[in-house]
Amino acid sequence: MYVFSKLELLLRLMVLGLVFVSQSSFALEESPQSFTYEGRVYQSDGTTPLLDTVDFKFEILNNAGTCILYQEAQLAQNLVTSKGVFALNVGSPVGNAQRTAGGSTDSLLTMAQIFQNKSTVSVPVGLCAAGTYTPASGEQRKLRVTITP
């Protein structure tokens, strides 16, 4: 049977403590501020890729579709060289220019607030008639994408 000296035991406990501290620090980080939306845009015939420069407008709505919790525009996306294929990061910190591009209105909600189902959040009246949004437990969100050539 091997007996640890006090120094060996102390060093082992310190290393173990560092592992727990590093794991708990990851748990404290804020949720991501964006997600990737990718796809391919086709002409109205459904078979020919759209080869044009387009504007994307993204809106995240409550499950009922009555409150716009987030909106942003990503303007002048060139689909010519990609043959209609795109991959865009949707989401940004409060105050980012994407949130007001193309006439969008910033809800002033963080992405963590948009996707949480714990508490009521204030939403500008132009985006949500009630001025507040109270999500139900487990409620999903809808993503509305508008593409303008």
Taking pLDDT < 50 over at least 5 consecutive residues as the criterion, the unreliable ranges are 4-27
The span between the termini is: 76 Å
Number of strands: 7
What structural category characterises the helix and strand content? alpha+beta
Count of DSSP H/I helices = 2
- Trace the largest sheet across and list its strands: 3-2-7
What would you report as the Rg, rounded to the nearest angstrom? 23 Å
Oligomer status? single chain
Q: What would the principal axes of the Cα set say about the shape?
A: elongated
Main sheet properties? 3 strands, antiparallel
Q: Helix and strand string, N-terminal first?
A: HEEEEHEEE
Q: What portion of residues is helical?
A: 10-25%
**Overall mean pLDDT:** 85
Strand content: 25-35%
Provide keyphrases for this structure.
149 residues, two-stranded antiparallel sheet, 2 helices, 3-stranded antiparallel beta sheet
